[in-house]
Specification:
The protein is built from 4 helices and 4 strands. A two-stranded antiparallel sheet has the order 1-4. It is elongated. It has one domain.
């Protein structure tokens, strides 16, 4: 088997071999959600006022210092988002009340 001709080829091979790994917990599977930009906007009621929040995060949003992640959203297409369920849970009124999170936060 012949090796890569340059670093770019090697980097592509590394990415292909590690695709689907959960880099933040290698012992757990990766559970990405595919959401459109519209689906990423969650809504909740806080202090009687409807507020919007961003559901989950992309790899680039979670680790902006890692420039090699190329998961930039393409307008009109769905993107992989991680932690959407956590965002929804943390924005539930019951959760906020149980954790004593003030309405202004």
């Amino acid at each position: 088997m012949e090796g890569p001709a340059n670093c770019s080829d090697l980097w592509q091979q590394i990415n292909a071999l590690t695709d689907g790994l959960n880099w933040y917990d290698l012992y757990r599977p990766l559970y990405p959600e595919s959401l459109s930009a519209e689906e990423r906007i969650g809504k909740t009621i806080i202090g009687g006022v409807e507020r919007e929040y961003l559901r989950g995060h992309t790899l680039r949003e979670f680790t902006p210092f890692l420039k090699h992640f190329t998961d930039e959203p393409i307008p009109g297409e769905k993107m992989n988002v991680y932690g959407g369920a956590v965002s929804d849970y943390m924005n539930m009124n019951e959760t906020r009340t149980a954790l004593h999170i003030p309405d202004e936060v």
